[in-house]
Amino acid sequence: ASRRGLDNTPSPQVVAAMTLLCNRVLEPVRAHYKRPVILTSGYRAPAVNKAAGGAASSQHVAGEAADFTVHGVSNIEVCRWMEANLNYDQLIYEFGESGWIHASYRADRLRNMELSAVRRGRKTVYLPGIVT
């Protein structure tokens, strides 16, 4: 946002959604592993989301999603722990250990949907479940 001069200021509604995501997903992960949760993407205003190549329907735009890793812990281990211990809307194991974890939380829609994002040629494909 700052590199492109785009405003990425969240509305009060978005701040409330981000707070829920932090309290219900990110903080429990941090507390369990007692390690930093490294956010690589969180809230993205619509113009920022577009510039990042995000889908127009991305939950990042609503402040409901974050992409992250946990310092010193494999992505698959974190995903497996989350799958067994937390409620969320989506949990996506994105591009294996060289990638990140995408998690979303929306209080009125906790699907506990697990997916894995993989590259097939130049295309991203989403597979059901957390697969390695």
Summarize the structure.
The protein is 30% helix and 27% strand. The chain is of the alpha+beta class and 132 residues long.
Structural summary, described in words:
This protein has a 6-stranded mixed sheet, with helices on one face. The N and C termini lie far apart (33 Å). It has helices at residues 12-33, 46-51, 75-85; strands at residues 37-41, 65-70, 90-94, 100-104, 113-120, 123-128. By secondary structure, the chain is an alpha+beta fold. The mean pLDDT is 96. It contains 3 helices and 6 strands. The radius of gyration is 14 Å and the shape is globular.
Strand order, main sheet: write it out.
1-2-4-3-5-6
Q: What is the global morphology? A: globular
Rg, alpha carbons: 14 Å
The end-to-end distance, rounded to whole angstroms, is 33 Å
The total strand number stands at 6
Order of helices and strands: HEHEHEEEE
Number of helices in the DSSP assignment: 3
Helix/strand class: alpha+beta
Q: Roughly what fraction of the amino acids lie in strands?
A: 25-35%
Q: How much helicity do the residues have?
A: 25-40%
**Uncertain stretches:** none
